[in-house]
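Re: that chain you flagged

S.,

Sorry for the slow reply, it's been a week of failed gels. I finally had a moment to sit down with the sequence you sent. For the record, here it is as I used it:
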Amino acid sequence: MTEIVGNQETVNQKLWGGRFSQSTDKLVEKFNASIDVDKRLYESDIEGSIAHLKMMAKQGIIPQDEAVTLIAGLGKVKQKIENNEITFSASLEDIHMHIEDALGKVTGDVARKLHTGRSRNDQVALDVRIYLKKETRIIIDLLTGFQKALVKMAQNHLDVIMPGYTHLQRAQPILFSHHLMAYYEMFKRDIERFQECLKRIDVMPLGAAALAGTTYPLDREFTKEVLLFSKVSDNSIDSVSDRDFVMEFISHAAICMIHFSRLSEELILWSSSEFSFITISDSFTTGSSIMPQKKNPDVAELVRGKTGRVVGNLVAILTVMKSLPLAYNKDMQEDKEPLFDTVDTLKICTDVYTRMFENIQIHKDQMYAACKQGFLNATDLADYLVSKGMAFRQAHAVAGQAVSYALNQGKELNDMALEEFKTLSELIDQDVYAFIAIDKTIARRISYGGTGFDNVKTAVGKAAGELGV
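Prediction finished late last night. Pasting the structure tokens below so you have them in one place:
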């Protein structure tokens, strides 16, 4: 044993320590360790190790009885971790070395055979894929649950009319249910993206070893079947250096969080006294420490804020990977913090929004009243003139003149007398009032995908059928 002066200690026997004559500096040991982050991979690591042992026994790489002993030992290690009976230490670096060390204490020297035919490089790639497969499926289920909340709200408010906005200015009347279904479509695309991403997560890399494969007669197809992967990775170098699936997952998560953030912004506006379109339940709001009247939409604000974290995580993982040569590099240890944070953030945001939506009160009359101000039926006045034979460009100009006139008179279009309309065009007659009525403007939006009553009812029904609600 070699004694080292200063900030180093006696050489310790790390799993990789055979080549080294000096022990790791304690600060480097702390800096190098990832156990504080990757310990949550313990279940995936043990699952992968059990499959690896079954394959090695089948191939005669290790005796069957030793595989049985090690598999039973891994079960005990799992229990110890879950019972908080294992102390995590930076000296053992990561979850892989902790599990192997704990296994040695349970089974003895035979535990040293566990790492035969593999490297931590393919091992960690496997662990992350096992973990992310499970979490992606959970997220898909959570997003589907939120879609159900959206559709149920749409079903319960099919006749509610609200202002539609462009540039955050009142534009045209729309159905509130139609607005909700726009978000249904967004989250439907999110689910589709995660489902596609699953195909690229669902690749089994174990057997690539450090980067070049191994001399042992591994049956990678067998390991794949045990672990329920869809395919085996084709190139050993790519197997250990690929984090595309992590970047892709976080990218999809960032887009999904953007959708939640956009919805958050609208809920925050709608719940303000300036809009008063909705009331969010007290269970999902907070108060002020100084202003007793306040009721703050903190859930929506936090979701909007947490979007920045997920977008930041995407930038982080892209930056980590952007200049890495093949194959594995220690930089890639930095993939887990943004990944884990993204998974946790998206899951809780989706879950809390689903529960919050069940407790939102819709103010139908307030929404409808808002449609009566701001000339939301100006386009319909132009359409009315077109129905009388006027070219649309000319009709648009006449409708604009009508708006200008009404503004100067402090009126809405519906308040103008027929004589006032006729000063703008003799084509306008008494039937104009029925034509530009709010309900009628909704009913006439008959183009596929539009806000017409029948269109939206059909769309909501189709979505309900897809979701089983």
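What I noticed first: The chain has four domains: 1-25, 33-116, 123-369, 372-467.

Talk soon,
D.
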